[in-house]
Amino acid sequence: MSARRVAAVGAGMTRFMRRAQETGKELAWEASRAALESCELTLDAVDAVCLTSAPDAFDGVHMKGEYLSDGAGAFGRPFIRTYVGGGSGVFTAIQGWYTVASGMADVVLVVAEEKMSSTQPHPQAAFLTIFDNVLERPLGPNLLWIFALEMNRYMSAYGLDKRDIAAVAVKNKRNAADHPAALLGRSDITVEDVLASETLAWPVQRLDVSPVSDGAVALVLASEEAAERITDRPVWIQGVGWNLDTAYWTNRDLVFPEYVRNAARAAYAMAGVTEPRKQIHIAEPYDPFDYKELHHLEGLMLFDPGTAPEAARDGVLNRDGDLPSCPSGGLLGVGNPIAAAGLMKVAELFWQLRGEAGARQVPGSPERGVAQAWGDLMQVGTVVVLGNEGGPPTTATRLPDSPTPPASTPGHPLTEAEFRGATGAVEDAVDARYAWDAGVAISRFLGGLREGRILGRECRGCERVLVPPRMFCERCFRGTDAWVEVEPTGVVQTFSICHVSWDMKPLETPEIPAVIAIDGSSGGFLHVLGEVDPQEVRVGMAVEAVWKPVAERTGSILDIAYFRPVRGGAP
Amino acid sequence: MIERIARPDEVRRWPGSIPVSHRYTPGVAGQAFLETLRDRGVILGSRCDRCRYTYVPARLFCERCFAELAADVEVGPAGVLRSFAIGFVGVEGEPLESPLTLGLVQLDGADACLLHLVLDHSDEPLEIGRRVEVVVKPAGERTGSILDIEGFRPVEG
Question: Is A509 exposed, middle or buried (0-12, 13-18, 19+ CB in 10 A)?
Fold first, then answer.
């Protein structure tokens, strides 16, 4: 490959806040200016700008990239916004990398911003349409379902103890207590606190989850020649990788993030990393939920599948452990302004590998780190490997003269009352309404449900039966071959007991969403369970569809009222 | 191969919406702009001396050089109409009872233009280059909103 070498030479961030007075533009500018000042550059030196921000629906600004562009320094410059959901923050560093590596630019400003506090009544609203509009949204899902279902699958497959997973939340919130830009640092938190917090969607509890936040992060990337002019301590982007799994999330085995492993393999290959457990000294895996950090450490091949939780329990992931993980405090501790949180991880590696992380500094002169994020429809992995190639100077040639992390801004946090009472605040709803076509395959599928039949499509290329059906196979990329009827029975792959609605209001009766592998098909299917005590539900339980009376069926996923345990079926 | 739709009645549509609304707060510079408009009835801009450019409304930073700016330059109240448009239909395409005139006005002392209504009750046709001035609501009726400005009114000169 003839790519040019690319170095990170500066980084900056705003404080992560529950509600910032700053507009999105103002947040982006604060972080961008801090990053430029950290390497003593002015905006004139910037050749191109790469920006990311997660859904437009958070800020409530359609075409948010253009809206944020002036705060990112894009006036009069080549500018691009990239977007891969939660994976965006790390991906935008990759975008910046190839803008420089390709020779298009010598100095690139990489900016990630998120302002989630604008969204009413709750930012989860912006996530509802990640579910299939025809097959999943009628079930009333919320975002927690996906996490809870994945977490339970992970725990069930390896017989994991929730305490070991909670140890991640404890570690990260403690680490964040040393981060001046953190929203939720807590040096005294314990595993008991996590286990005693409110259950949202079992097994997910309040303190397993990262907080809704506003914030921005920026990074300055430079070509080798430019980096030599700018700094005597460049941190090199040694490898990048990104990868997608199937968009049919219920068709995946949620136990292992294959897409992260694929992305990591690409990044490690570029970086010349052949033994990640020896050659990676710091990890910043994506941790919107505590189990996700563990899941991702396994995807990054830093632990065998199912073994990261014991590492968390035994302190291996602590700052002074064998593999420090999220020394920043991660999303769980610093905060989770979605896109900005991912880039914060790359910035943390930059500071760590320059020996500038102050109270958060990982001991032992780390030389290489990996940052990773995850997103899109929960199936993209984005990975960046950074290294200082020779170690940070044992006696820094130029000591940082600002508090750690260098170049963070205090911001203007608003209380709930200040937010509600702010002069000039405006409330508005987009009020866009849609009619989603079910499409060719799903129309036929829904017609089958009305007749009390579950229909799938057979792909003779990979010998799978696809439920929900589709007219093309996304693996073989050929038309599927034939309609087949499968049994209205299946096996629970994973489930959750959900106590809150999408806008985080308590539910009177908990819901039991489940991914069910329909007998005779390949992969799972989202529905809810009924006629069962939530405490009796088990992964592996045999279930059957309970149909609505014929007269009440309309050709909808709700023609199956729910699934219930097969009487006398497998336990 | 694309399968033909043999039975159109099987094609289904699922209606829905994205149930999201927003509360927009005006930000650091925006709040200074709106509070001054409310309290003193004047328009605040921000000057970047390095770029020799005065932004209106006030901004926290210069998008040209990234300098931090203060909201401390009073502009107007008079200025020049740089462009205008006359709307005869509303957002849904419905005819308006009386046409609405929108103007881009470069207030005296500013480089950027401010967008607002043109309050033109004369029979004379409006012209680009016309002198106009800002009309603000009476002090007691101002709330800290862009609507504390009623619009621009043509003036002599």
Answer: exposed
